[in-house]
Amino acid sequence: MWTKPHPYFYLYIYLVKDDAMKFEAATIKDIAKALGVSTSTVSRALRDSHEISPETKQLVIECAERLNYKPNPIALSLKEKRSRSIGLVVTEIANNFFSQIINGIESIAYDKGYNVIITQTFESYDREVMDVQFLASRGVDGLIISLSTETHDLSHLKALHDRGLPIVFFDRITDEINTHKVIVDNYKGSFEATEHLLQMGAKRIAVISSSEFLSITKDRVAGYKEALKMHGMEPTDELIHYSYYSGMVFSEVEEIINKLFTLKHKPDAILTTSDKITTGVLKTLKRRGIRIPDDVALAGFSNTDIPELLDPPLTIVQQPSREMGEAAVSLLLQMIESKRPIRDFEKRMLSPELQIRASSVVKKKAGKKPSGK
Amino acid sequence: MWTKPHPYFYLYIYLVKDDAMKFEAATIKDIAKALGVSTSTVSRALRDSHEISPETKQLVIECAERLNYKPNPIALSLKEKRSRSIGLVVTEIANNFFSQIINGIESIAYDKGYNVIITQTFESYDREVMDVQFLASRGVDGLIISLSTETHDLSHLKALHDRGLPIVFFDRITDEINTHKVIVDNYKGSFEATEHLLQMGAKRIAVISSSEFLSITKDRVAGYKEALKMHGMEPTDELIHYSYYSGMVFSEVEEIINKLFTLKHKPDAILTTSDKITTGVLKTLKRRGIRIPDDVALAGFSNTDIPELLDPPLTIVQQPSREMGEAAVSLLLQMIESKRPIRDFEKRMLSPELQIRASSVVKKKAGKKPSGK
DNA sequence: TTGTAAGCGTTATCAT
DNA sequence: ATGATAACGCTTACAA
């Protein structure tokens, strides 16, 4: 159906002569010199210290504006012993779930004057270790991380945590490190999706989930199993499958589908629990000419707009990714900015604003029923 | 088809007591003290200066390792008067074209010790100005930017450029600022896509492009027109449409499709020139029950895997986004790191490596022909 | 109310 | 071959 890829585009690159000299920004010293006062006076005036005469303050502020003075963030960092940057470790930027996480994180981080350094693991443990070390060497003030599927050894993170680096886990979390974590109710999500498939008339629901070593997988599969039991069905191992690389490696998904559809009793519905797995299953079914929902009904976790484009529709479980990012970064900044420990587990919850946003997330459902063979 | 969205997910947030003290990293001073030498000796030893005795060097390096010494990047930045960070302005991270641009940029930037600060405009001029100012205030050493669709006034960038801030434009470029630019051959891309539609038997090809003010739009529409002329057809205005927000605002695309399909002579093929427009058109056609390619053939620019999931297939024009990112950042780092002007336009082209990578990009074509009514 | 000086971590320029 | 010192931009005791 697709012709063989062939080389195509040229890159056009315009080069120009570059003889601009480096612009020197105004410093506090320039202001001091211009006004014939000391740098400390300027510093204090700009920070609106109470021990500066209104006139001087006025003068300084005016002069600062005139010179277009901007405090040098690097000098500040050196003084304050903080980089005002936080590290982020995700699987892949080119994934809606994570790009929305990033949006959530950056919106808040930038507001508070923090940079975000983004790194990607592509589900590789080695990359994760590299990323974490890179971030540590850049002197980030804190770390937000979703573990790679390959990660079983957490020593690279433990070491940093022991040294006092604030860390927040999200989505793929771990029990081995005692710090803040942000996840959604994965159990409930897959429970409801499974239930919906049952309501559509499905009798044999298969599940394709991420690596069974991931925390989220356990919850999602548990929700699936519980829904079956609630409706008087017994989960069968032959219908439960794991994609080690969460669908990043397409052939994994393909093989699972192949296995499922060579069973004596083929499934009449499939639950997929990640963006990439959902996409992969769609692709495979299309290739094999298996129709949705006539041959199999489908319910899947997805944060992309792919399923919306497809006919017939499927059930989508959407995660509040942006809100997760916001929550994670808020917690991290809290850890960073308050030296004091968070004392009260109940009271010191998220700010109300954040909680409201968190509940605004949706689940979309498909209406059609499978022909129920 | 889709039931009304309803609130769904909870955010689970685990809070823990945080009583870890801030870890103090080893400095050059610690090494000096431990070894009873001066800081300058340590500094020189670590930088492998020739004027240090081998024994001292040995000692210092050993000690540094023992203390797990890492040079403080912030102190270095302050000294060198550079932040070792570069700013990036894109439309949106959650867009494959840009996330791959980011991949290209980061892979090279990180290797050379630079951070990348990513900002998003969402096609808004105001956001772009904010982003640029934010990046400037963070003291980035350089800027990589793809202009927003709303941007007609370039003074925010001109000011920085005049001050000597290195800037590289990519994709949506401008003539008004004389600096490096990275684009693909948009003309050729849309020329070939149009030609392919013609070969499929299309007689009336419509084009839906981004804002007509964007540089890329001009090239793409020009390629389309030229292909028509080459095949003895005259471009008609009623078949040429522009989406001001490049498909980011879905209703724009919807309206254009509506207009096209209420024409006396409806189009039998459509060329779309951006990710979002392609997606939007697919969605609209699906909603209106217009079949591809039986009712209309489709060719579109896209860097997502969405079209691959759809049946019937369409022609896809793919941009070498990762390579564009690599090219852009290479040029920028060149500008940043060499005070000397780039003298020779011809010789100082990209490194060979980069050129090779740039040609590895593909175009995929659909095979089916429209029923050609 | 304002100025002086020390310090953040590092390197470059002098001396020694 | 090594050490002392100043400097990068800024804040903050401490003095005045």
Q: Could you describe the 3D structure shown?
A:
By secondary structure, chain A is of the alpha/beta class. Chain A folds into 3 domains: 64 residues, lambda repressor-like DNA-binding domains (434 Repressor (Amino-terminal Domain)); 132 residues, Response regulator (Rossmann fold, 3-Layer(aba) Sandwich); 142 residues, Response regulator (Rossmann fold, 3-Layer(aba) Sandwich). Helix content of chain A is 42%, strand content 14%. Chain A is built from 14 helices and 13 strands. The first copy, chain A, has a 6-stranded mixed sheet with strand order 9-8-10-11-12-13, sandwiched between helices. In chain A, β8, α9 and β9 form a beta-alpha-beta unit. In chain A, α1 crosses α2 and α2 crosses α3. Chain A is elongated, with a radius of gyration of 26 Å. The N terminus and C terminus of chain A are likely disordered. At the A-B interface, β1, β2, α4, α5 and β4 of A face β1, β2, α4, α5 and β4 of B. The structure holds a DNA duplex (16 and 16 nucleotides).
Compact overview of the structure:
The structure is a homodimer of 373-residue chains. Chain A is an alpha/beta fold.
